[in-house]
Each structure stands twice: as C-alpha cells, then as structure tokens.
UniProtKB/TrEMBL annotation:
Highest taxon, organism lineage: Bacteria
Catalyzed reaction equations: L-histidinol phosphate + 2-oxoglutarate = 3-(imidazol-4-yl)-2-oxopropyl phosphate + L-glutamate
Gene: hisC
Name of the protein described by the UniProt record: Histidinol-phosphate aminotransferase
Species whose genome carries this gene: Arenibacterium halophilum
Keyword match NADP: no
Record's keyword terms, sorted: Amino-acid biosynthesis, Aminotransferase, Histidine biosynthesis, Pyridoxal phosphate, Transferase
SUPFAM superfamilies from the UniProt entry: PLP-dependent transferases
Domain Aminotransferase class I/classII large: 27-351
GO molecular function, one term: histidinol-phosphate transaminase activity
Length: 360
C-alpha cells in the first residue's frame, strides 16, 4: 500500500462497547453501558415522533432552541454552549482544536478510554498519569505537565471507577495547569450528583476550563447521540468552526430539548438511582464484594483477583446478566455494574450470591 494514514491513527485501539446479547441465553439484562433503566422521558419520545413529520427539512444549524433550554435549566449563558453528536463529538472538537503532533494530552490511569483515542486521532501523544486508589490524583497530574501539555481530560464523576474529586481539588488542578493547557471536565454523570454543577462554576472562573455533558446517561437518550459543552465564548467560537453545520438532526434536538425540560423525570431517575445504588453496594459488601462509594449510575465491584472477577463475570453471563469487564482500564480484578431497576439489582445480587456460594 502506498497510501498511508496520518500519524497516530494506527495507534488507536478500537473502542470496546458493552455487549448486549449472550448466545443461547434468553431474558438477558444489559448492565454494561450505564444506560437509564427507566428509559427516557415520555415527552422526549413524543417530541421525537413529532419531528418525524418534517424529515424533508434540513435542521437548524445554530441549535438555538436546545441551547436556550439547556441554558434555562442549568442557569448558563446559551451563547457559551455548543451541542454535538454525543459529548464524544464535543470532546473530539476540543482535541482537534487544541492538540496536534508533538503535543501531550494527559489522561489518567483508569480514565475513560475515549480520551487516548481522541489524542491519537489528532496525532498527539497521550500521557497516562497514575491514580490514587481509583481516584484522580491532582498532584500527579500537575507533576506530569510539561510545556507540551495541551489538554487534560478527566471525567468527574469518573468512569469506570465511579469516584469523584471535590471542588477544591478541581480548582487546584485548574489553577496549577500550564497556561496553554485546557482542562476538560467531562460531566457525563454530573446529574447523578445532587446539587453538582458539573464544573460550570469553574468554567466561569478560569479561561482554560471546558465542561462537557451528555444526554446519554440520566436522560436515557444514548441511542440518539446528543451532548453539549460549556466554555468561554472564545473557546465555543473555536469549537463551532470545527462543527459541521448540520451535525444534529431536528429529531435529536427536539428530543433533547424535551428531555432537559422534564425536571420531574430527571429527578425521579436521580433519586431512584441513588436508592438502588445504595442497596446494591450494601448487598454486594455483605457478600464480600466491596465497591468505592459511587457518585454515578454504576458501581465498580472489586473481587479478590482477576481470576475471581472473570469467573463471576462468566457466572453472571450464564444467568443472563451482562456487566462490563474492566481489564482494559487496568482494573482486571473488577467488574463495572450499571445500577438497573429494582428487579435488575436483585438479579445481580442473587447471581453474585450464587457465585460466592458455589465457590465455597
Ligand atoms: C458515557 C460517557 C460519555 C458520553 O458519551 P456520549 O458520546 O455523550 O454518549 C462521556 N464520557 C464518559 C466518561 C462516559 O462514561
């Protein structure tokens, strides 16, 4: 072959998504992608159906109604919001805009696997920084910064660890970074934390902080692909130059707007998740399977060894339960389990109990 891709592209390890079926097993329950067990707001489904009558029309390019709704609900300036095809697309704009060959992008040890993919895609070098007991380590990140650091990606709360760092720590990170580095606060799970602004306040205080959010998790719209980002106007202006004018369809925008405005549904999802997450972690702890205190809609179950985690995963599969292996996140002794509805949580606990009993 004489045609060759740009540097970095062949370094990309393809993203592994959560499985959704098991050969020969029925009544399968997918708890591997942190989807919303309560589905999505009925108002969002209705808005999406209404959009079906206008499929011959191009969508708007400025996302004004959706940005207005997000701004209203979250108390943010719509002029400083950008919408993307999932927050993944917003993260991609950030990588394209601020990093390239010769630049370094800091990711953390158990950080979301999209971050190194995005760094490689723009020819930059991902630099991995250790975490401390599955928690982002601000001192380690600051120590890893060089004059080539252009982006630091952290999710807060983090996936797959479910832990988060507090505002004082995030602030210390924003303040300590080199001037040329962008701090990306990925708030995919922010809505699960009562009273948390996802880092929006830090965006207001520091010119180099960008927050991203998604409709895929608490809003239950993973299948539709909508996310957004919040930053200084100058940053949003840069990102908008990379955005295709029609990146979001009318149906995506209509559903997302209805979803963000349905405060009652969101609140119900948040409180149900908190209740069942607590129940699930306590029940797992009683079976000798500890978890870190989760701030998200999943728990990271820790086993005695990678072999035990694998064996438990196989047992869960045989019972029709799909959870996420985390070996690729340097957590081979763990399994990430999405907090499902009450029946799902009970099935998980019963299956882990059966597994432990069979082990003797
Ligand atoms: C699920 C998730 C996202 C969301 O991605 P979308 O492209 O919006 O579906 C982003 N970051 C993290 C850490 C996630 O777990």
């Amino acid at each position: 072959m004489t045609i060759a891709p740009q540097p970095g592209i062949l370094n990309i390890a393809l993203y592994q998504s959560g499985a959704s079926s098991i050969d020969g097993v029925s009544n399968v329950l997918k708890l591997s992608s942190n989807e919303n067990p309560l589905g999505t707001s009925p108002a969002a489904v209705e808005a999406y159906q209404r959009a079906a009558h206008q499929l011959h029309r191009y969508p708007g390019t400025d996302h004004a109604a959706l940005r207005g709704a997000i701004g209203e609900v979250h108390g943010l300036d719509p002029e400083r919001i950008i919408c993307g095809v999932g927050s993944d697309e917003v993260l991609q704009f950030i990588a394209q805009a601020y990093a390239g060959p010769g630049d370094e992008v800091i990711v953390t040890q158990h950080g979301f696997s999209m971050y190194p993919i995005l760094a490689h895609a723009v020819g930059a070098t991902p630099v991995e920084v250790a975490e401390r007991e599955r928690v982002v380590d601000v001192d380690a990140i600051l120590a890893a910064c060089t004059d080539r650091t252009r982006i630091v990606f952290i999710a807060n709360p983090a996936n797959p660890t479910s832990t988060m760092i507090g505002e004082a720590e995030t602030r210390r990170l924003a303040e300590g970074l080199p001037e040329k580095a962008v701090l990306v606060l990925d708030g995919a799970y922010a809505e699960f934390v009562e009273g948390f602004d996802g880092g929006a306040g830090l965006v207001d205080d520091y010119p180099n902080v960008v927050m991203t959010r998604t409709f895929s998790k608490i809003y239950g719209l993973g299948g539709l692909r909508i996310g957004w980002g919040y930053a200084r106007r100058e940053v949003i202006d840069v990102l908008n130059r990379l955005r295709q004018p029609f990146n979001l369809s009318a149906g995506q925008m209509a559903a997302a707007e209805a979803a963000v405005r349905d405060l009652a549904f969101t609140e119900k999802c948040r409180s149900e998740n908190a209740r069942l997450r607590h129940w699930l972690s306590e029940a797992l702890a009683e079976l000798g399977v500890p978890t870190d205190t989760s701030m998200a809609n999943f728990v990271l179950a820790r086993f005695a060894s990678p072999a035990e985690a694998d064996a438990c995963d196989a047992h869960l599969k045989s019972e029709g339960l799909i959870v996420r292996q985390t070996g690729g996140y340097q957590l081979p002794q763990c399994l990430r389990i999405t907090v499902g509805d009450e029946i799902a949580c009970r099935r998980v606990v019963a299956a882990v109990k059966g597994f432990k009993a069979a082990q003797g």
